[in-house]
Amino acid sequence: MNQSMVLQQKFFLRGFTGAGGGLAKECISLYPNANVIIFDLPEVVEIAKKDSVTSDKGRITFQKGDFFKDPVPEADLYILARILHSWNDEQCIQLLTNMHKACKPGGGVIVVEVVLNEDRRGPPEAHIYSTIMLLIYGGRGRTASEHQALFSAAGFKEMEHKKGNFFDVMLGRK
Prior knowledge:
Layout lengths: L4 H4 L6 E4 L3 H9 L4 E6 L1 H10 L8 E5 L10 E7 L7 H14 E11 L1 E2 L7 H14 L4 E2 H11 L2 E6 L5 E6 L1
Parallel strand pairs: 1-2, 1-4, 2-3, 4-5, 6-7
Antiparallel strand pairs: 5-9, 8-9
Helix pairs in contact: 4-6
């Protein structure tokens, strides 16, 4: 979360979309005026609901759906944490395009992923992670320029990239 703080502070946040619940709780604690939508498959939403805190004052809502088939909820900012590595380029572009269509003007998408060096020779952890994603999901790790190409193909512009110790954070603006 620390790596993305600089990027997130550039937005007036009224809404997020994300899955799992932990990131949603962190977002509402950091941004008192933010509301968060957890949008994911029904089984994931049910798990997130069970783990949800009751002190969120209705600021975390849940919506069941498939981000490839169902309309993506409108928001200022979307956060995809460890999502794109699970999908091939065509599927990533479809997902990002769906978010771009639903994204409010001036908003964007934050992507948190393990990012390969441009020469694809490291870091070693990224190769291990990429291999696991290939074997389990058919996805793969990508370089920052490959992520930039996905953002551009979906209509996002001005990608910012912040390197982290393991996960990098990238912001594409609408």
